[in-house]
C-alpha cells in the first residue's frame, strides 16, 4: 500500500472508529437505563383536609374530636431493589397534647409517564414497611414534628421499596408515587 492510499484510508478509519465508539456509548446507556429505574419519587396525594375532616394523611379522628395531619415524601429516588425511608411530619391540630401510637403508609397510585403496554409500572412494583408498632410519639397542642425531630430511630420509620421484579421495569423510570397516610393517636393523660 503506497502513501497516497494510506492518506485516503485514514479518514475512513477515523469515521469507523468514531461510529464504533458512539455505538458502544449508546449500548451502555440503553443497558444502564434498563437496569436502573431511578427517579421514582414519592409525594403526598393532596393537601391535608381541614381539621376534623377525614382525608389522605389524617388520623381518622381517633383523638376526641380533633385530628392530626401526616405529610411527607421520599427524600431520594428509588430503583429496583432499593428502598427509602419516610421522615414523616406530624402536626397536632388539636388543643391538647396527644400521643401518636401508630402510623400507616399506603402507596395508593403511581403516575408513570414512561409506562406503556410493554413497560408497565403498577402498584405491584412497590411495597411499604410500616413504622414500628406502639410508637407513643408526643405532640403538644399545635406542635409539628418529624419522626427525626421526635427522636424516633430511623430503623423504626416506614420505608417504601421498589421491588426488583423479574420483568422489565423501565416504565417506572421518572414515576411518582402517590402516598396516603393514616394513624392513631390519643390524648395524653
Describe the structure.
- The protein has two domains: 1-35; 39-187, Sandwich (Ctag/Cox11 (Pfam 04442)), CATH 2.60.370.
- Helices cover 17% and strands 29% of the residues.
- It contains one helix and ten strands.
- The strands form three sheets. Strands 1-10-5-7 form a four-stranded mixed beta sheet, with no helix packed on it.
- It starts with a helix and ends with a strand.
Give a summary of the structure in a few sentences.
The chain is of the alpha+beta class and 189 residues long.
Structure characteristics:
189 residues, alpha+beta, Ctag/Cox11 (Pfam 04442), three-stranded antiparallel sheet, 2 domains
Low-confidence stretches: 27-39, 44-65
Structure classification: alpha+beta
Highest CATH level, the class of the largest domain: Mainly Beta
**Rg on CA atoms, Å:** 25 Å
Return the average pLDDT rounded to an integer: 78
Report the end-to-end length measured between terminal Cα atoms.
Answer: 97 Å
Instruction: Outline the biggest β-sheet.
Output: 4 strands, mixed
Beta strands, count: 10
How helix-rich are the residues, as a percent range? 10-25%
Beta content comes to: 25-35%
What is the ordering of alpha helices and beta strands?
HEEEEEEEEEE
Q: How would the global form be characterised?
A: elongated
Strand arrangement within the widest β-sheet reads 1-10-5-7
Count of spatially separate domains: 2
Amino acid at each position: 500500500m503506497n502513501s497516497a492510499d494510506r492518506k485516503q484510508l485514514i479518514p475512513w478509519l477515523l469515521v469507523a472508529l468514531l461510529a464504533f465508539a458512539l455505538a458502544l456509548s449508546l449500548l451502555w446507556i440503553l443497558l444502564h437505563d434498563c437496569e436502573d429505574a431511578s427517579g421514582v419519587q414519592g409525594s403526598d396525594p393532596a393537601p391535608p383536609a381541614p381539621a376534623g375532616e377525614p382525608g389522605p394523611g389524617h388520623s381518622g379522628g381517633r383523638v376526641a374530636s380533633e385530628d392530626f395531619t401526616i405529610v411527607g415524601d421520599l427524600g431520594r429516588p428509588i430503583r429496583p431493589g432499593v428502598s427509602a425511608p419516610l421522615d414523616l411530619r406530624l402536626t397536632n391540630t388539636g388543643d391538647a397534647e396527644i400521643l401518636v401510637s401508630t402510623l400507616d403508609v399506603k402507596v395508593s397510585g403511581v403516575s408513570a409517564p414512561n409506562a406503556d403496554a410493554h413497560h408497565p409500572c403498577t402498584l405491584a412494583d412497590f411495597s411499604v414497611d410500616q413504622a414500628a408498632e406502639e410508637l407513643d410519639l408526643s405532640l403538644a397542642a399545635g406542635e409539628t414534628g418529624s419522626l427525626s425531630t421526635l427522636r424516633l430511630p430511623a430503623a423504626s420509620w416506614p420505608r417504601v421499596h421498589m421491588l426488583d421484579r423479574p420483568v422489565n421495569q423501565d416504565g417506572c423510570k421518572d414515576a411518582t408515587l402517590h402516598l396516603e397516610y393514616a394513624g392513631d393517636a390519643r390524648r395524653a393523660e
